[in-house]
Write a structure and sequence with these properties.
single chain, about 650 residues, alpha+beta, Collagenase (Catalytic Domain)
Length: about 650
């Protein structure tokens, strides 16, 4: 009897789904028999791909018709129009379809493009269906706001509305940011568009949902390329297409190394199982407009290869630690406040060695660094690494001083891995110290005890300002020239610094302090030179070698995305290996040109900054090497060795 009741229940449920479910019809006027049959097959394929939950919720009849259109498809009310240019390819069918070479869509054939277009327009139908009943605050959640630190409850990250394109968690899961477009053409193309399944997704949240649903349902690689987007859509629709598909491993990140010895990018794996902990890394207040409230970063405590994960000693493996940092891409010689307010600078996620970051903030910018442990379980750390990897490859937003800055981006990253934490899910944080306070208040972190604030980590690194002042005082004593501070030393002319150098070398005292001052001066001059040359190279030039410099800068800023043209999202390890080979070969072929470029670099320094500036840099190098040699000779003398 119980089985009979259950059977009747299933029958009633299935009948109710049929009564209230999506129906698709099409206008067959002016079509021949083969066109009618082919269109029917296309519709059947598209409807079969759709998640059952979507078809149940979209309980209406949608009419399909062919129309002369500039775009591939269009939807309004209960009608979908397909471009009549697709008709011949639909009739040809999947077996005889030609490759897709005319659009930026990653669909391989034009038939798949037509099928994807129909799925895309059906996605719009779902997204817009009864929109005012499902989400009366359309577009309110996705837009940045300066008015309040909180958003209405319907915008909470843990809620899933039927109207997906307004759900901030969905938009974050695909690293979406609006790009300027004219029709289907992107006006501000960058490497995030190159890493997209179809760049048209950047036009609006509506298009982002439609594009991602296409590839979620049609491309087995989508779950490998955009795992966070796949997870969101799978949860929303309670549907997992290609769930048995075996993803090729894709763990590589692009690490930015920026030091006086080396500048550039390296590809390296980021393995969540080797991460012992995640810390919130806070830099103290700086002097510039963009840093006067501090800077938000994230520290990944990665254990050395010989160490067991979760070992407390992993905190000491700083050479292996990596820092996640959202930064504005500033190439201006002076930071523009107006650009910062209006979103004139691009924003992207950089991953850097911790040791580089410590050097940058404590020595070059003379700021403190605080490392606050964040309580995340193993699953959350794994999710965190996945999000970082995705954003490292695909995220390019706009940087706003007030509401889309390092703090808000960092907070969103934390919020994404703990969406169930109600205390932070509805907050909108825009300051670095606000992020720290929110994490502590939510029980995800805690204040650093005073006894752990030692000068060299693992939870705190002090500014080298006092240390440099000691070096300044010692050089003043050895040279007999009164120097107030580091800033005063930088302002001295080259001839004045040469006199001080000669006096210190003749005295034989405090050579190490003199070395530090020369080293800091060299790094400061190099930063000024690099900024001026980059600004110059981004402008139009006619020189062949200068054009090479411009191309190299472009490739550097675009993360080598042009080498990954055949895919989107997170690249597989196999693709990384192929790209490495291509880069090595390119380097071999370009070696002579690079030698020419180095010569041109000097010529540009003279052209832009003058001969005295180049002489100053070269002189700092000479003085550094002279001190090194003298210190080595002194050590040999102490050991009784021949010099």
């Amino acid at each position: 009897m119980q089985k009979l009741k259950y059977g009747l229940y299933l029958l009633i449920l299935s009948l109710s789904f049929k009564a209230f479910a999506l129906k698709v019809d099409f206008n067959s006027a002016n079509l021949n028999q083969s066109e009618i049959q082919a269109t029917n097959r296309l519709i059947e394929k598209a409807v079969e791909l759709l998640p059952p939950l979507l078809k149940t919720r979209l309980n209406k009849t949608v009419k399909i018709e062919y129309k002369k259109l500039d775009e591939l498809g269009r939807t309004y009310f209960s009608t979908i129009q397909l471009s009549d240019q697709l008709k011949a390819h639909i009739v040809a069918g999947p077996e005889r379809s030609v490759p897709n070479t005319t659009t930026s869509s990653r669909h391989k054939t034009v038939y798949d493009l037509a099928l994807g277009t129909l799925v895309h327009e059906l996605a719009h139908q779902y997204d817009h269906h009864l929109v005012h009943e499902t989400n009366p605050y359309r577009h309110e959640c996705a837009a940045p706001s300066n008015e309040s630190d909180t958003k209405p409850s319907h915008c909470a990250w843990y809620s899933f509305s039927k109207n997906i394109s307004d759900n901030p968690q969905f938009l974050y899961s695909i690293s979406w940011s609006k790009k300027e477009m004219k029709g289907r053409q992107i006006l501000e193309e960058d490497d995030s568009t190159a890493r997209s399944p179809y760049a048209y997704e950047f036009k609006s949240p509506d298009e982002a949902f439609a594009v991602n649903l296409e590839f979620f349902l049609m491309d087995p690689e989508y779950q490998c390329r955009r795992p966070s987007g796949y997870a969101f859509l799978a949860k929303h629709f309670q549907h997992q297409p290609f769930q048995n598909y075996n993803c090729k491993k894709g763990q590589h990140i692009l690490t930015t190394i920026n030091s006086s010895e080396i500048m550039g990018h390296i590809y390296e794996p980021l393995d969540a199982s080797r991460i012992a902990a995640v810390h919130y890394l806070l830099a103290g207040d700086g002097d510039s407009m963009m840093s006067q409230w501090g800077h938000s970063m994230i520290r990944l405590v990665i254990c050395a290869p010989h160490r067991k994960v979760l070992d407390e000693e992993c905190l000491k493996d700083t050479a292996y630690h990596r820092v996640v940092s959202y930064r504005a891409g500033v190439t201006d010689l002076a930071i523009s406040t107006m650009k910062g307010i209006t979103g004139g600078y691009p924003s992207r996620l950089y991953i850097m060695p911790l040791l580089n970051v410590i050097h940058e903030y404590t020595q070059l910018e003379l700021r403190e660094l605080y490392s606050y442990p964040v309580k995340l379980n193993r699953a959350q750390i794994s999710n965190f690494v996945q999000r970082v990897t995705e954003q490292n490859w695909t995220y390019r937003g706009k940087y706003y001083f007030s509401n889309n800055n390092c703090a808000s981006e960092t907070f969103n990253l934390f919020r994404n891995v703990v969406p169930e934490n109600i205390q932070i899910s509805e907050l909108q944080i825009h300051t670095p110290k606000g992020v720290r306070d929110a994490l502590i208040k939510a029980g995800l972190s805690h204040e650093i005890p005073e006894n752990l604030k030692t000068e060299n980590g693992p939870y705190y690194w002090s500014s080298k300002k006092k240390l440099f002042q000691r070096h300044i005082d010692q050089v003043s004593l050895a040279s007999g020239v009164v120097i107030k501070d580091m800033a005063s030393y930088f302002k001295l002319s080259l001839s004045e610094r040469q006199i001080i150098f000669s006096k210190v070398m003749n005295s034989g005292k405090f050579l190490s302090s003199m070395f530090v001052l020369n080293r800091q001066t060299y790094e400061r001059l190099s930063m000024i030179r690099n900024a001026h040359i980059m600004n110059h190279e981004l402008k139009k030039t006619d020189s062949e070698v200068t054009q090479l410099a411009k191309d190299m800068l472009k490739k550097d800023m675009h993360h080598g995305a042009e080498y990954f043209k055949g895919s989107y999202g997170i690249p597989s390890d196999e693709e990384i290996y192929t790209v490495r080979l291509a880069l090595e070969e390119n380097f071999k072929n370009s070696k002579s040109k690079i030698d020419d470029l180095l010569k041109t670099y000097e010529a540009l320094t003279i052209q832009i900054l003058g001969e005295d500036f180049l002489k100053d840099i070269n002189e700092q190098t000479r003085m550094i090497n002279e001190i090194k040699q003298k210190l080595v000779n002194e050590q040999k003398t102490k050991k009784g060795e021949k010099i």
